[in-house]
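Protocol step 4 of 6: structure prediction from sequence.
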Amino acid sequence: MSINNLSKEELELYSHKDITYMLIKEFGPMNTADLFKKITDSLELPKSFYENKIGDYYTTLTTDKRFILLDDGNWDLKEKYASDKVKIDIDEEELDEEDEEELEESTDEIEEEEEEDEDNFDSTVNDDDFDDSDDDYKDLVIIDEDEMELEE
């Protein structure tokens, strides 16, 4: 669906975020000002609306998970970019002996570290060892500024 083919009345049914999505999908990455200008022009909104609401529009784009701000300052659709987290499936049949040894060594190291952490944990400490009483404060006296002036 082309945004240019939609009437003002049809566009008014969409949120600014949805119109932005359509614009980027159709025209590619754009900066905040150009996107909002196209929206306000398409909806025939006054220039004062553009000037007063562009900050709110930017905030809306930053909180919407469909959009990503690129290094060049343009907004694009996040769906076009792969995640930086990559899952690697290891097929044990494809591992050669050297790879298997490395995998076993790293697993052994992790297990040894976990055992050391368990050995260093003092399980004898419990909540009863801590004194939460207010005995330290029983001799304290609170005075206000007027009383301090009288003592001087």
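Step 5 (inspection) to follow. The chain has a mean pLDDT of 78.
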